[in-house]
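In the design runs reported in the main text, the only information available to the sequence generator was the tokenized backbone. The following block is the verbatim input for one such run; it is reproduced so that readers can re-run the procedure and compare outputs position by position.
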């Protein structure tokens, strides 16, 4: 069984996945995989430069800040880049799944629904948190400004839409405990596989 874990930027997807990892469930990070693909796959690198109309690798590695600036201010460019990278990530996920030996596996993806990854998993968890907490978490862990974080949030599906399409929801605010929620979901999945 393949379980998708998604949620908006700063919602706490990675924290939830760490708890599953402690339970022995393998986690595939689609976002990390996408970054790696854009760093090492020469055909992706060439096509990415063509799509954005400039060399994003002048320093020898991907200028992530410039790419983010370009795609988060141009929806069609964002969609083109996603259409280029996501099929490669999905193939890597399928290969990775074949190598796992666990009752189920997890794909962690910020844009699980938007990318189409929701079609290659069996069940989905959406992690939610209040907007202000999410913004503060992202600002604290990165060099992004409040405006940049809000811009990225606007480019993602909202929680209400994600929840409608999910099998489970985990609230991850300062007042919520995620471990009991993860344990309940884990038991539910184990009892059904």
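Verbatim output:
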């Amino acid at each position: 069984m393949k379980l998708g874990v998604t949620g908006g930027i700063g919602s706490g997807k990675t924290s939830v996945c760490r708890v599953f990892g402690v339970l022995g469930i393998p986690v595939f990070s689609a976002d990390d995989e996408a970054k790696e693909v854009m760093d090492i796959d020469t055909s992706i690198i060439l096509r990415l430069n063509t799509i954005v109309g400039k060399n994003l690798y002048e320093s020898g590695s991907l200028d992530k800040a410039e790419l983010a600036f370009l795609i988060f201010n141009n929806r069609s460019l964002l969609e083109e880049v996603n259409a280029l990278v996501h099929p490669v990530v999905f193939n890597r996920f399928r290969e990775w799944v074949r190598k796992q030996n666990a009752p189920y596996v997890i794909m962690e993806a910020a844009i699980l629904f938007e990318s189409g990854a929701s079609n290659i998993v069996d069940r989905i968890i959406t992690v939610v948190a209040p907007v202000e907490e999410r913004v503060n978490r992202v600002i604290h862990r990165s060099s992004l400004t409040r405006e940049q974080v809000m811009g990225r949030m606007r480019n993602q599906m909202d929680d209400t839409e994600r929840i409608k399409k999910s099998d489970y929801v985990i609230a991850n605010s300062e007042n919520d405990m995620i471990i009991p929620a993860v344990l309940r979901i884990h038991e539910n999945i184990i009892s059904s596989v």
